[in-house]
Specification:
Residues 133-156 are annotated as: Disordered. Residues 133-150 have a biased composition (Low complexity). By secondary structure, the chain is of the alpha+beta class. The chain has one domain (3-155). Helix content is 31%, strand content 9%. It has helices spanning 8-24, 75-90, 118-125, 148-155, and strands spanning 31-32, 37-38, 40-43, 49-52, 59-60. The strands form 2 sheets. Strands 3-4-5 form a 3-stranded antiparallel β-sheet, with helices on one face. The radius of gyration is 17 Å and the shape is globular.
Length: 156
């Protein structure tokens, strides 16, 4: 099934599943320990897409460039939320590279500060329809620098 074949409500559920996975691991972005809740996409009474913020509980109008005053996360996560909002509105899948891996010159390869938790997060998100299939090779393990195609050539 193509991403555009899903309804807006189904795409919001896919996007919320991405946010929930992010909130489960690493630094637990989108999770509020104090309020015991995860940020989530929803629709206001007028049918407009909103993000209910984990910390404030207030609506963030994600389709507006300004007015993210109630958003408790930073700029990197805002970019992820904006991409997920685009997926919900238009069915355009997001780039899986939002979740790395990154080259060492970008924050020593750990943009989010998730460390070893990022690989399991990527694995958990791999089947989510909100993310387009990755076209980039990934290392066969976190300690290996051999790419899968190279490893197959070496084995033959």
């Amino acid at each position: 099934m193509m991403a555009a074949d899903y309804t807006r409500t189904e795409r919001a559920a896919h996007a919320n599943a991405v946010i929930e996975e992010i909130a489960k691991v690493g630094r637990r972005f989108f999770w509020s320990e104090e309020h015991q809740r995860v940020s989530r996409f929803d629709f206001d009474t007028g049918g407009r897409l909103i993000l209910v913020d984990r910390e404030t509980g207030r609506n963030v109008h994600v389709t507006q460039r300004e007015g993210w005053h109630n958003f408790s996360e930073g700029g990197t996560l805002r970019a992820v939320v904006e991409a997920l909002a685009g997926y919900i509105r238009e069915g355009v899948q997001i780039n899986p590279r939002y979740f790395g891996p990154w080259p060492a010159y970008i924050c020593d390869g750990d943009l989010w500060g998730y460390g070893e938790a990022m690989a399991p997060l990527r694995a958990a998100l791999a089947a989510n329809p909100a993310l387009r299939p990755s076209r980039c090779p990934t290392p066969t393990s976190s300690s290996s620098t051999t790419w899968p195609a190279a490893a197959e050539k070496e084995a033959s």
